[in-house]
């Protein structure tokens, strides 16, 4: 019998916001932010009335404790950096709601909208002048024989890290249950396109366009230089086995330690059913984000031309 693969959603399809489909002009909104940071808490207090002018604010959660599955919200406004986005995605779990990300962090590959633009953009977003783009998420499970001992939903990456005493690891990689290769390395990362600008990038991995349907496998400090990062389809199943882990060799999902690994553990990573839904507004395209965040501006003359081109994107042709 032929193996059935999960059908990938079309990430380029511009989805009409749910509240407009239901005949409502004002979306039901939840505001999430990391309240332990003073400047984020202050921004939440300042921006809540701006949002409330055009939407029904159900609640403001500064501690990531509210259940979004029971809130029946149409839109989640996340204030913070990329780490805050990961917390929001984890909090939503299988009930992923479209996210409007406002950047209050440092880099902000995911949170590209600055607070200064929210007042201008938000009325148009509520009126449907935006698109909701779906991004790949993954499911990471740890098996011991037929028993699943850990099961986690993630957005960025799954990483195996050597840990003290920092001896080199031997990691077998299986793709669709067939041995692909064996790495001698300090760790191994399986990341999504969204995660390709995170830990994988630091390990020398490629940048994948965020709406691609693929995984990138990046070894950390491989012993053999021919062991390069690889990109393969999201429909495949990826498994990792550490033959002789160190005492504290760990499995990390989206920056959180899931467990310490033993030689009998098998780490399985595959496409998740839920997708992460990001609200995108005009003028904040993918390559502009890379130029801004990675310093691809080049010379002063190039930056001047880029600023002019960006203004034309927003204003349209004369």
- Following the backbone from N to C, one meets helices and strands in this order, namely HEHEEHEHEEEEEEEHEEEEEEEHH
Cα radius of gyration in angstroms: 21 Å
CATH class of the largest domain: Mainly Beta
> What is the number of beta strands?
18
Please give the CATH architecture of the largest domain. Sandwich
How do the strands of the widest beta sheet line up side by side?
7-6-17-14-9-10
Q: What's the domain count?
A: 2
Strand percentage: 25-35%
Largest sheet: 6 strands, antiparallel
Could you please say which CATH topology of the largest domain applies here?
Answer: Tumour Suppressor Smad4
Measured distance between first and last alpha carbons: 59 Å
Rough outline: elongated
What report would you give on this structure?
The protein is an alpha+beta fold. It has two domains: 18-129, 3-Layer(aba) Sandwich (Rossmann fold), CATH 3.40.50.10330; 138-271, Sandwich (Tumour Suppressor Smad4). The chain is 22% helix and 33% strand. The protein has a six-stranded antiparallel beta sheet with strand order 7-6-17-14-9-10. Helix 2 (38-52) packs parallel to helix 4. The longest helix is centred in the C-terminal third of the chain and has 16 residues, at 300-315. It starts with 17 loop residues before the first helix and ends with a helix. Residues 310-315 have low confidence and may be disordered.
What's the arrangement of secondary structure elements?
Blueprint: H1 18-21, E1 28-33, H2 38-52, E2 56-61, E3 75-80, H3 82-92, E4 99-103, H4 115-126, E5 131-135, E6 138-144, E7 147-154, E8 157-161, E9 169-175, E10 178-185, E11 187-191, H5 199-202, E12 214-220, E13 230-233, E14 238-242, E15 250-253, E16 256-260, E17 266-271, E18 276-280, H6 286-294, H7 300-315
Helix pairs in contact: 2-4
